[in-house]
Specification:
Elements: E1 2-6, E2 9-16, E3 23-27, H1 39-47, E4 51-55, H2 74-82, H3 93-106, E5 112-117, H4 119-130, E6 135-141, H5 155-161, H6 171-185, H7 194-207, H8 211-224, H9 228-231, E7 238-243, H10 251-260, E8 265-269, H11 281-293
Parallel strand pairs: 3-4, 3-5, 5-6, 6-7, 7-8
Antiparallel strand pairs: 1-2, 2-4
Helix pairs in contact: 1-11, 3-4, 5-6, 6-7
């Protein structure tokens, strides 16, 4: 893994595959580090002919943190959101899209295939809308336009996401919390075995556990609001993938995303929730690769 200066901040990144292969940039979601794109999944994409790049978004993992901007008062901001009052966010999805474009600049990549999951899908959408020449294709996975009229999380998923973070240095509690969240929002049709899930969560927590960054990222999502007008500008060939059984961002959001992006294709996967389970790696890699290769 390496770090690089991009858009005025430091981003941690890692590259798999030969420099001569078409670049495919993976953009992760809320609070999740780049290692949430599992190594075997990245290798599947390399084996299909791509140079795969993953990175830590701002405020997560080993990339720049934004402590100097303060930590949001989530309960207060949620109340303001319900009352449709202006929200106080430290940055927006557009800023994170600019980070992503900056990473491509720093790596001297003119354009890449972009694959984003959840918040990463939002970042990819805004990247494609604001920097169209940088995006060869877009794959938006379990993401949304941000339209308020769309259905929200189930009560179980909402409760899981709102669990208080572990105290600093308490690895066991942080791992247990992360496992509980994934169990609450994950794929009912492709459940992870206990050992795989425990290893995933422990690796994540031990690398960098930083809930304050997740709070600021959450506010970036909320304050960015309805991005429909932006994504209607997307010209890149787009594939939207969504789980039929997603309890956090219900499938209606994926259907809406595909409807609003011109000429987008939609793939709805039965049994898939709001995660990237091992049981779906091969299918997701196949669908992503086929979509990207169509653009050659």
């Amino acid at each position: 893994m390496s770090s690089i200066q991009a858009n005025g901040i430091t981003l941690e990144y890692e590259i798999f595959g030969p420099a001569t292969a078409p670049p495919l940039l993976l953009v992760m979601g809320l609070s999740m580090q780049m290692i949430a794109w599992p190594d075997p999944f990245c290798q599947m994409l390399v084996d299909k002919g791509f140079r795969v790049i993953r990175f830590d978004n701002r405020d997560v993992g080993l990339s720049s943190k934004f402590d100097h901007l303060g930590t949001p008062n989530i309960p207060l901001e949620f109340l303001k959101h319900v009352m449709r009052l202006p929200l106080k966010a430290q940055y927006l999805i557009n800023d994170m899209a600019a980070d992503t474009a900056g990473l491509l600049d720093a790596l001297q990549i003119e354009a890449a295939h972009i694959v984003g999951v959840s918040m990463g899908g939002m970042i990819g959408q805004n990247l494609a809308a604001n920097f169209p020449r940088r995006v060869l294709s877009l794959t938006s996975i379990m993401s949304t336009t941000g339209r308020r009229s769309l259905p929200g999380p189930t009560s179980k998923a909402r409760r899981a996401m709102m669990m208080p973070p572990a105290k600093r240095g308490d690895v066991a509690v942080a791992v247990a919390r992360m496992k509980a969240v994934i169990r609450a929002i994950g794929s009912v049709g492709f459940p992870e075995d206990e050992a795989t899930l425990n290893d995933f969560c422990e690796r994540h927590v031990r690398r960098n556990y930083y809930p304050a960054g997740g709070a600021r990222q959450l506010m970036a999502i909320a304050a960015s609001g309805d991005r429909t007008a932006a994504i209607r500008r997307i010209t890149a060939p787009t594939l939207v993938i969504h789980g039929k059984d997603d309890p956090l961002v219900p499938v209606a959001a994926g259907i809406e995303t595909a409807r609003e992006i011109p000429n987008a294709k939609l793939s709805v996967i039965a049994g898939m929730g709001h995660d990237l389970p091992v049981g779906l790696h091969a299918r997701l890699a196949d669908e992503i690769a086929a979509h990207c290769l169509e653009q050659r």
